[in-house]
Amino acid sequence: MLSTGWGWILAALTASVTCVWIWKRITGAGQHRFERLLHSRPDHSESWQAAFPNEMPTVERILKNFCEAFMLNDNYRFKLEPSDVIVSIYRATTGPVADDMQLESFIIRLENTFQIDLTGHWDANATLEDVVRTILNKTLHSR
């Protein structure tokens, strides 16, 4: 009788662990795959420097906000390229079931960091470079 009770508990525990493992694989697989891709990329700080020679502190703040919103390691911020399309990164990092509102979080972080309104300044094909240019234009006009 005791072994039957323990067998039931062990089966339930195994099923629970398996469900959690499957859920993590479904929802987090893209995130891990993208981080491995970033890890293998070269550093692109020179590309950022060439595109925005006098604005590197702003570029760095934007890329840090991006990494935080997309739950990426901050050490990868300069492995992101100016030509990276934000929605492509979003699709690569989210699972098929649900997302963690990365895009919304990124926009809110930028609006709070730079005290600007980005309503109407978002496009499905926007690159990270486009975002930096928009932020720089909006902050210059608000001064």
Brief descriptors of the model:
143 residues; mainly alpha; elongated
Your description of this structure?
This protein has a single domain (29-141), classed as Non-ribosomal Peptide Synthetase Peptidyl Carrier Protein, Chain A. The protein contains 6 helices and no strands. It has helices at residues 2-40, 45-51, 56-69, 86-93, 102-114, 128-141. The chain is elongated, with a radius of gyration of 20 Å.
SSE layout:
Blueprint: H1 2-40, H2 45-51, H3 56-69, H4 86-93, H5 102-114, H6 128-141
Number of helices: 6
As a percent range, the share of strand residues is: under 5%
CATH class: Mainly Alpha
Structural class category: mainly alpha
Instruction: Quickly count the domains.
Output: 1
- Mean model confidence by pLDDT: 81
Q: CA-to-CA gap between the ends?
A: 77 Å
Outline: elongated
Alpha-carbon Rg, integer: 20 Å
> Helical amount among residues, as a percent range?
55-70%
Q: Per CATH, what is the topology?
A: Non-ribosomal Peptide Synthetase Peptidyl Carrier Protein, Chain A
H/E element string? HHHHHH
CATH architecture: Orthogonal Bundle
Report low-confidence residues grouped into runs of 5 or more.
25-29
Q: Which sheet architecture does the biggest sheet show?
A: none
Q: Give the total of beta strands.
A: 0
